[in-house]
Amino acid sequence: MQIVRFTYDSTEVRTSVFLFLFLRMSGIYIFERYFNLEPSVCSKMLNALPDSETGSTPEEYDDYDMELYLVRNEDEFRAFRKYGYTHKTILLVLTDNWMKDFAGELDEDKTVELNQLTSSNALLKQLLDCIYKNNLISHKTFDTLNTIADVYCTNHIMELTFSAKYFYTENDVERYGKNVERYKSVADYLFGTMANKEIQWGDTSCIHLQYAALHIAYEGNLYCMRHKKPFLFTPDSMAKVCETLLSNKDVLLALGDSIHLLAAQIYGDLAKDMHAAYDHYLSACKGYSAYAYYKKAIHLMEIERKYQLAIKYLSKSLIIYPSYYRAWHMLGICYMNEGQWEKAVKAFDNLEVILAPRLKSRLIRPMEIEYLFKAANQTGEILFREMQQVSQAIERYLFAEKVWKAIDETGFITLIYHDLPTESHVRDRIKEELNIKAVYAKLTEIYRCVGDNEKMTFYQLKMYM
After folding, report:
1. Which of 14, 92, 120, 168 is 20 to 30 Å from 162 by CA-CA measure?
2. What's the rounded Cα separation, in Å, for the pair 337 and 3?
3. Angle, to 10 degrees, between the axis of helix 290-302 and the axis of helix 274-284?
4. How far is CA 146 from the centre of its chain?
């Protein structure tokens, strides 16, 4: 199994993130789609693309290995109805009283019913069992994914991921050491499991386990690199393993695109071989892989400073996946570098369209807060400095303040972490990285320019609180 389309409401975070990170750790590409982001809204967002792409609509890629739907309530079940069951459909239902009116419409063989007390481990076990019974994976793949599921749950990989990859540089030496040890122990266990079972690199019956071992090794190395510490595993050796896997035609058919992406990350992020990374990203640029086009664009932006070419690849990524808020942010930066101010504002504004439901429901994620905060500030700067739209600039800076306040308000951090000290530490670290005082300085400057001394004084005082 290589590609899964996952449809859910964007305000559901705990279960969706848990499943997303498990599938990604297993080398399965996830294409997300939201019940609460209508196609018409996505089409409107695409107006922020270059004029040559304006009016483009996503080409529907439907060759997925599995369709997964997560449904929590009556409205979401009604939304699911328009898609319906196919032989590749698995429906995950969080049950409650609403289900009694729809029980007769469920295909029991393709449905996993859960409740609020279902454990994370039980969730994966039941889901994998349903996938296997519907002949979407082989018995060997079923066993392999169950092995990964045990490792994923036992070692709390979701929490580790948000403590490391999706977080800022750790300034607590003890926390850093614990995270490194967790990465090392998980990777060693996965490599050890391969050795104990005498699994050879390139054995397609266990390819997901091989990917998981390399993936965790990569994540651990990336964490060490970000803290300027020695690698846990040698990047050159990891890259050679990827090349060995990709030389196997059966591996290419089974999981080739995912391994190309992982190889590109190892070459680019760890080995700093940008040429090899670029080649692997190019190999992974397919009709469903918005991420590959996005990463190729980042290379063009940051390494070659070819913003117009980067815009083309970001456009390809966004036509495939209009909800890709990070791609919209990078597109806005490219437009800024090209002096296309109106296009930049439209691109940055799309982050709010995508993330507004999570912000409103107080379930926005730390990375989403970061990107939304930066986009609001960048929009405010453009509107004030380049377009002389003062009132609109003020609105964007006030919105940036609202986003910053979401650091304390979001329940997502509470859902991920299980103890108050860690939760408080995470919130404090985000605040340290997102400079709210710079926002107050901008508002002070703007209100001074327009002669509103009362508000100028108000925000000037906030700068020093």
Report:
1. 92
2. 35
3. 150
4. 23
443 vs 397: CA distance, rounded Å: 7
The dihedral formed by the CA atoms of 258, 365, 360 and 444, expressed in degrees to the nearest 10: -120
Percent of the chain with pLDDT over 90: 82
Cα Dmax for the chain? 75
Q: What is the pLDDT of residue 53?
A: 64
- How far apart, in whole angstroms, are the C-alpha atoms of residue 409 and residue 363? 8
DSSP state of 134: T
pTM strictly above 0.85: yes
Q: How would you class 245 by CB atoms within 10 Å of its CB: exposed for 0-12, middle for 13-18, buried for 19 or more? A: buried
As given in the structure block, the two tokens for residue 447 are: 């209100």
**Residue 311 predicted with pLDDT over 60:** yes
* 3-state SS class at 435: coil
* Distant-in-sequence, close-in-space partners of 186: CB < 8 Å, separation ≥ 6: 151, 155, 157, 216, 220
The dihedrals phi and psi of 83, each to the nearest 5 degrees, come to -95, -45
CB 346 within 8 A of CB 147: no
Measure the N-to-C terminal CA separation of the chain; round to a whole number of Å: 54
Query: Which of 185-194, 205-214, 456-465 is least confident?
Result: 456-465
